[in-house]
Amino acid sequence: MKFEVQPKDKCPCGSGKEYRKCHSAKRDKSDNNMWKGPGYNQVIYFGHKDPFTGIWFDKTRKGEFKLLKGDDRVPVARFFCVDDTILACKAIVRFLSVSMDDGVIKYTGSLEVQKCVQRSIPVLIGCIDAKSVENFEANLSGRPVSYERGDWVIFVGEDENPMARIKKEPQWLRYLRASGFLVESEAAGEINFRLSAKAKGFNLFTLALPFGEIEIPHPQISALDHQTTCQLEIEKESVSWDLVLHQDIFSEKKRSRKDSKVFLGYKQDNDVVFDTFDKTIRKHFLKPIKLRLGISIPELSATLGKFTEILERTIRTISENGGFRFDEAGNRILEAEFRDHVLTVLKSMGYYALAEPTRRKGFVDILLKKDDSEGIIEFKVWGRRKYKEVIEQVLDYGTPWTTEYATVMINPNKDSVADKFVENARKSPGYRHITEESPRFLPLNKLISCHYLPSWDKHIAVTHFILNAGMF
């Protein structure tokens, strides 16, 4: 199959720029440019954290790449090749749903591939980490269907191992990659699947479809016990001249494509609605894609975790012993005093927590850390210095590696400030939408706002707590 990238096409690197203005060989002829194109040698790079002595791979259209380290063979990726006739197929996803029960989150779906080829049809169903899957089931219209777990690369437009083909005639590589289950169907029918995993702070499900035409319905998000934010992303197939094979490429957290189409989900009544996505009409896409459905549940995150519960217990204790006065007349409380009180509770519960560490443009009120996760919490008293900029402030303290953000607003007034807080939130950087879970005027209100920061090409959820001190 001949596949070309034209000068005015989007650059295969995923930057969103035209190829001629990004990684065209006319701009960059160096060996570091893996998108040089025709006229240049084609290379496959193998990467691993330790030195290795050689490589091993299957020479058929389905197999595995491994590195040789002495007598050991280290798996890098499994692969499946499908020739260009696969692009004549149309995949119709009948439904997609996510639900949660007793701490287990379930991803369920059904899809039909209108088959136009003689070979088997591959579909890749996965999540943020295939090792975290507790259960996976799949069938073809009720009949058994074969599937295999692994870190997969589906090569589109290949009828043999790409390493063997490169030796004959270099050409652009097209592929989808994901960690999960490769489902193969030899016959026509609907592929039904269910994937279950333990719910976390961030849950991601993927569906890789190597077909020329695809229809996807509005996902159904239901029965979640916690306040959530959702994101549906349509990621285009990867295109490159050289091929990089390293286990890090299967980390969904480290991915860096910038040309994906994103739909943000938000709560509406008891349902989740994805912005600009009509519930009654399936979205239509051309060329192979990977669907990424992300569900953020801040209360289950590694750092913020049970922060809501900790805050509620803290203000209950304050209510019982009268240790703080938040009213303006008393004018005794500063956010730093309350923060230090909460910090003591966090440390007593085993959190690695710091107060006032230096970060970018100032000092973070509380920095929480656990393994590779990092949470930033900012405290303010309503009506006092820079209280309207609290969201901008907490976002400014973050880095591309910050995983959770939260603000705590102490309201010393007798009336609710929720409406005004929402109004201020809409003026904050990259604001997209805000959701509420509890009634407006309780001792503790909780909201979540979603923001997009173009400098990091990242969608961020910020959890907000409003403490209504007049009700303590």
Main features:
472 residues, mainly beta, 5 helices, elongated
Biggest sheet, in brief? 12 strands, mixed
The residue-averaged pLDDT reads: 85
The total of helices stands at 5
Which parts are unreliable, with pLDDT below 50 for 5 consecutive residues or more? none
Shape: elongated
State the helical fraction. 10-25%
Strand count: 31
Backbone structural class: mainly beta
Distance between termini? 70 Å
Alpha carbon gyration radius: 25 Å
Strand content: 35-45%
Descriptive notes:
This protein is mainly β and 472 residues long. It is built from five helices and 31 strands. The chain is elongated. The termini are far apart. The model has no long low-confidence stretch (mean pLDDT 85).
Present the secondary structure layout:
Blueprint: E1 44-46, E2 54-57, E3 62-69, E4 72-82, E5 90-101, E6 104-114, E7 121-127, E8 133-140, E9 143-144, E10 146-156, H1 162-168, E11 173-185, E12 190-198, E13 202-209, E14 213-216, E15 220-221, E16 229-236, E17 238-240, E18 243-245, E19 261-268, E20 271-274, E21 283-286, E22 289-296, H2 307-321, H3 335-348, E23 352-355, E24 358-359, E25 362-363, E26 366-370, E27 373-381, H4 390-397, E28 404-411, H5 418-425, E29 431-436, E30 444-453, E31 458-468
Parallel strand pairs: 1-18, 4-10, 5-14, 5-15, 27-28, 28-31
Antiparallel strand pairs: 2-3, 3-4, 5-6, 6-12, 7-11, 7-13, 8-9, 8-12, 10-11, 11-17, 13-22, 14-21, 16-19, 16-22, 19-20, 23-26, 24-25, 26-27, 29-30, 30-31
Helix pairs in contact: 2-3
